[in-house]
Structure formats: structure tokens, C-alpha cells
Amino acid sequence: MRKSGYLIIEILISIVIFMTVVVAIFSNIATVMVRTKRSGLTFEAGLLLQEEIEATYNIFLRDWTVYPDGEYYPAINTSLGEWTLLDGIENNVRTRYSRKVEIETVCRRPQSHPDSGKIVDCIAGEVDLNSKLIRGVVEWVEKGENKKVETEILLVRTNI
Amino acid sequence: MINKGAVTLIYMALVTLISVLILTVGYSRFMLSLRRSEAFADTIETSYRAESEINNLLAQLVGGYLTEANFPISESMAFGDTRVEIEARIEDNSQIIDVTASRFFAVNKIRAVRVAYGSGFFNDAEIIIALDCTGSMGNSSGSSEGTSRLQEQTKAVLGFIDNLAVSDYAGNVRMGVAVFGRNSNWLRSVSGQQVRPDAGMTVAEVRQAVYSGFTYPSGSGNLARSRSQSICDELVEDYTNIGAGFNIMNNYFENNPPPSGNAKRVEILISDGEPNTYIRESVCLNRPTCVPCSGNSFPLDYLKCTLADQNTEWTGGRTGMRNPLVDSYVVTVLHNPPAAVVSAIQTYSTEYYNAIYAYQLSEILDRIFESISTSFARTTISRIIPISEE
Amino acid sequence: MNEKGLTIVEMIIGMTISVIILMISTSMMVNIFYKDTKSKQSEILSQVKNDLQSEITVGVRWAETLSFSDNELVVDNSIYRLNDGVIEKNGEAITPSSVYIEEFEIDDFSTTLQQKSLRVNIAMRHRDFSSVSDSLEVVVSQRKMEIEEQ
Questions:
Q1: What is the pLDDT of residue A35?
Q2: What is the mean pLDDT of residues C69-76?
Q3: pLDDT tens sequence across A49-64
Q4: Range of B51's domain?
Q5: Does one domain contain both B112 and B102?
Q6: Mean pLDDT for all residues in chain B
Q7: What number of C-beta contacts closer than 8 Å exist between A and B?
Q8: C-beta atoms surrounding C77 within 10 Å
Q9: Which of B241, B245, B338, C132 has the smallest set of CB atoms within 10 Å of its CB?
């Protein structure tokens, strides 16, 4: 009779130890998962984000002075076979995403200031014609949750 | 006869081992795809961050916010989970800037090498401005003061000449002013002299010629409102032939050697319209491979031919007439610039500006002036493969 | 006598029950946390996409010389060519043999003549499970590496 008792106890102990190990491992996964919230759709969103930043980079190589601050999205001008920026936000990209690039003027502390050149709000500084800030955002809805990826790049004028 | 304690231990070990093995299989596939998407996100962040930081430094150097006195630079900063390190130093006469951006899954390192020559590089400058003398310049400029486009053009040009007069170039700049409509011609001073760069006129004399040609009555304080009130009527016919403006300037540069080897040569053209005509010209250029721009049926083609430089093809097998060392700045005053014209000008000019309203011309000419007068430098940017430190 | 030892039968029963409980609970765990389990084949395609994306992006972005034609991309000294369903870099395969690359198409939408802006389209499927397919579209612009200020 006692032998059977021990056997059950042993099983119980095993399970307890097992659960301890499992909890230790999975608490790690849970932390990572909660922090990242990534999915298979994120790769495609990343590609769309890269596309809009890369297109904007190329456009600004030639058309540095053409686009005032605002929201745009890249499109291909089919008759000229080249990238161009159109006003506004692009919706229904690959049916589920929306994206835009924001073009923003860069202002710096003037040369007379001790922090000469530091990027500040335009109220506090002067416009730097040789810099432009490009911010790219791609958004989508996944399982009821709003998701987005974004990045920004500061461009310097290259046809000075 | 095994000890119960030992058996329990064996159970524990086996249970743990088997559970870990089973978990690893499912876990690893999950972690692999997680790592892959993390890595992609990280590479996007680090590469654009590194480029941004290099560009930020270059913009400050070009704009004069940072000078060699600020070197060497050694900075570390963090943007969220991205760590950035900047190292900048002077070696020989080069400014070397290294930026490294790193995140958990990606590292990016970019280097820029900038060699500055300083503004003493050129001693002379030749600048020609071509002004629009068509009838449409009498239309409203869009400003609240009710000025016409011709008036704003005159204001902008006088402002440009005034900037020139107080700059380092004032003593050794040669200016020319041309006008165009259906054909092109040089502006004339009151004494009848053509305002060409080789006419030997001072900046003040050029200003006086513009002033007397574009005020009504001539020499009074009132800017001429339209073509008929200005000297335009005497010099060129109406109709818009933008190519003629480029033609007269490039013809001059081609047929007249620069005052010195280091002379900076600049042409600026202002127009409010679309090219609707061209002109047959038989004048060829003084060089062995002469490619006249005549014989084109389309005004836009004539524009392309006269604006593009000699190293650039504007259509199959034909290069332009402009000397590549001449910088060409084009300013249009168009509310809705037609895409083909904009594209042609953007592609073949050095720099293109569009003013939606003519009153923005003054600001644009200020920018052009600034663009011309900053010092000369060359920057080389490259990506460096980071070497693992492990 | 009851203190000493277990019979083999007891050991086996104990281990069996433990392992069964284990397997049930771990598969439940894995399913909970990895609901988006893709098939192994589409995992392979995802990995290929990732690898190609980074190879092309870094190569084109910082290329000093760049040219392309049908199914071929030349970045400095590297020639990427589609050959019989496999993408080769200077003759050596950079995609696995289990993946069949159907398309490797390149377009240039640059606004300037000196720097290119390429859009690369790659379509692929698993060789053995041809219904498993995927595609990749990468846009990357050649950086202007020489800047003249005048």
C-alpha cells in the first residue's frame, strides 16, 4: 500500500518541478512577446516603409526645393517613368495598409548661439535650407489592434 | 534495489530533460521568426539613423554652423534602443566623420570625408540673368500689393544685384542681363550699350541699366507694369521662347573665354510661361563638334537642347549646348507648372525653383545668391562594414 | 521490504504517466504562444525573402557602379543572376535548392541619371510543395556618394 502512495507522490513532485521549469522558461517568452507584438505582416509593412523612404530620398536628389512641408505618399509617374510625391495619405496599400511620408523643415540655432547648429523648434531657430526631415509611417489593423511601423531620416542637400 | 530518493531524482532529471527538449523544438521556430522580424526592423532603424547623423553633421558643416574649430568630435547618444557613436577628426586637410548606429540585431557604420577648398578658390565670377519680357508678365503677381509679375521680377533682380554689390565678389564680378520673348537680346543701358559681361560695366552701372529699362517713365521711381511700359518692347518680340533665353547666355559663354581659369560662370533665367515657340538659328558654336539647336519642331525640345549641357543627352544621340562648367539656375513663376516642362528643367538645369506667385521671386533669388557664394568642397560618403569586436 | 526499491513496472508506469502529461501540457503551451504557426515550407520562403531583402538593399544602396538587365543585377563586382530557379551571386547560389525562384525583375524609377532607384520584384515557390508561394518587392535607391559644394 505504501508503495502506491509513494508513486503518486513522485508523480506529483515531478509535475510541480516541471511546472516550475516551464514557468521560468515561458515568463521569458511572455516578456518578449508583450514587448514586441510582431507578426508576419510586419515584414511587409517594413518593406512598404523602406519603399517610401527610398523613393523620397531619390526624389529629393533632384527636387530638393519642390515640396513644401506636409504629408505625401510616393507614386510612380508612369509617363515619365520616375518617382514622384503626391499630396496626402495613401490608403488601401496591398489592401490593408495606409502610409505617408511627412516632410518637415529643419531649423537650427543660429551661428551666433553657443549651441550653433543644434536642431530646435522653428520658433527658436532659423531655417536650414540644406536639411530636411523625412518621417515615414505605415499603419494597419491586425486582429482588432492598430499597429504601425515608422522611421525617420534627415537628408542633406546634395546638389549644392 | 534502488533507493527511493535516487529514483525521485532520476524522475526529476528525466522529466526536466524531456520537457526542455519538446519545448525547444516549438520554441525555436517561434524565436526564429521573431528574430527575423526584429532583425529587419533593427536594420531599418540603424541604417537610417546612421545616415541621418552623418547628414546632420554635413549640413552643419556646409551651413557654417560647425567649423574645423569644433573638431575633433566624439559623441555618444541614444535614440530609444538605438545607440549612436560619432567620431570626427581632421586628417591632412580632410574632415573625416564616422557614425556608428547599433541596435540589438543590427549595426551600421558610415563614413564621410569632406575636403574643403575655401572661398578663395575662385577669383572671378561671370553672371548673366535672362529676364522674361513677354506680355503675360503684365499679369498679377499674386501679391496683396497688386503688383504685376514684371514688377516683382524687377524687384527681385535689383535685390540680387544689391546683394552682389556688398559681397566678396563685387570687385571682380562681370554681369550681363538679357531679355527674351519670341527672340532674345541683350539689355541696353541708357547710353545704348549692351549689358554683356564683357562690356566692362560695374555692378552699379548694371543696376542702373536695369533700373532705367524697367521703370516707367524711365528712371522714375515707378516700376514698369508691363512689357509696353518697359524697354522690353524695343528689344524683343512677344511670345514665349524660353530656349532663346538660354541660347543667348550659352552662346556668350561658349564664344567668349572666361576672364580667368578659376572664374565661376552662372546663368539665371526667370520666366512665367510655358515655351510656345522656338527660333531657327543658324549660329553655331565655336567648337569642333558643333551641334546647333535649330531645326527642332517643338518649343520644349528647343528648351531642352539649349539648357542641357554638353555631356548630357536630351534625346537620342543629341547633347545640349551648355558648357558643363556653367551653373544654370532656372526660376519659373507658374501656379500649376506643366509636368513635362518642370521635368525638363529639373533634369537639365543645375537648380530649379518654382514660385507659385511672382512675389516669391525675391526670396528665391536670395537663395540662389547664397547658393552661388558659399565655399567649395567635395564630400565622399561610404558605408563601412563593421568589424565584430568579439 | 516496502522501503526498498521499486519494481520495474512501477517505474515504467510512473515515467509513462509523467511523459504523457508532459506532452499534453507542452503542446498546449506551444499552441497558445505560437498560434500563427506557419508551415515549415512557408517559413523557408520567409527566410529567403529576408536574406534577399538585406542583400539587395545594402548592395544597391551603397553601390559605386550599378547596372541591370533582364534577370540580372550588377552591383560593383557582384553579379546577381537568376539561373534555373536559383539566384546566383557570381555563380554561387544564394538561395536554397528547396526554393524555386520564378521571377527576378528589376525596374529603375530614378529621377536622376547619376543615381538609380530600383524596384526589384522576386516571385518564388517551394520546389516540392508548389502551392506554397511568396513574393518580395524591394525598393532601394543608390546613394549619392560624391557631393560637390560650389
A1: 46
A2: 92
A3: 999 999 999 999 988 8
A4: 42-118+375-390
A5: yes
A6: 81
A7: 121
A8: 8
A9: B338
Phi-psi region of A88 (alpha: psi -120 to 50; beta: other; left: phi over 0): left
Q: Which of B148, B133, B129, B130 is nearest to B359 (CA)?
A: B148
Q: Torsion over CA of B316, B318, B322 and B327, rounded to 10 degrees?
A: 20
Residues of C in contact with B107 (CB under 8 A): none
Residue (of A129, A139, A140) closest to A60 by Cα position: A129
Average model confidence (pLDDT) across chain A = 84
Shared-domain flag, residues B236 and B136: yes
Q: Read off the CATH number of the domain in which B332 is found.
A: 3.40.50.410
**Nearest residue, CB atoms, B23 vs list A10, A25, A43:** A25
Q: How confident is the model at residue B282 (pLDDT cuts 50, 70, 90)?
A: very low
Q: CA angle, C14 as apex, C11 and C16 as ends, to 5°?
A: 105
What is the pLDDT at residue A3?
A: 52
Chain B nearest-CA residue for A135 = B48
Q: Which of B70-79, B137-146, B195-204 has the lowest mean pLDDT?
A: B137-146
Task: Please state whether the predicted TM-score (pTM) of the whole model is above 0.90.
Answer: no
Neighbouring chains of A at 3+ CB pairs within 8 Å?
Answer: B, C
Is the domain of B95 the same as that of B169? no
**Residue contact C23–B22, C-beta within 8 A:** yes
Q: Are residues B98 and B48 in the same domain?
A: yes
A58·C46 Cβ contact <8 A: no
Does the structure show a pLDDT above 70 at B328?
Answer: yes
Task: Enumerate neighbours of B (3 or more CB pairs within 8 A).
Answer: A, C
C-alpha closest to that of B349 among B386, B312, B388, B385: B312
Q: Cell numbers for B256, please give them.
A: 567668349
pLDDT at B289: 42
pLDDT interval class at B300 (50, 70, 90): confident
Average pLDDT over residues B269-291: 57
Q: Is B90 part of any domain?
A: yes
Report whether pLDDT(A39) > 50: yes
User: 508583450: which residue's cell?
Assistant: A34
Which residue has 517613368 as its cell numbers? A81
- Is residue B192 domain-resident? yes
Please give the Cα distance from C139 to A54 (Å, whole number).
7
Over residues A119-136, the mean pLDDT reads 92
Whether B367 and B387 share a structural domain: no
How many structural domains does chain B have? 2
CB B112 within 8 A of CB B380: yes
Are B158 and B285 members of one domain?
A: yes
Do B254 and B152 belong to one domain?
Answer: yes
Residue C21 touches chain B, beta carbons under 8 Å: no
**Min CA distance, A92 vs chain B (Å)?**
22
CB contact under 8 A, C147 and A158: yes
Chain A residues closer than 8 Å to C150 by CB: 160
For residue C2, what is the nearest residue in chain B, using CA coordinates?
A: B4
C-alpha cell at position B156: 527681385
Other chains touching C, judged by 3 or more CB pairs under 8 Å: A, B
Whole-complex ipTM: 0.81
Is B180 in the same domain as B273?
Answer: yes
CB-based contact B23 C29, cutoff 8 Å: yes
Question: Quick check: helix, strand or coil at residue B140?
Answer: strand
Residue B48 is part of a domain; what is its CATH number?
Answer: 3.30.1300
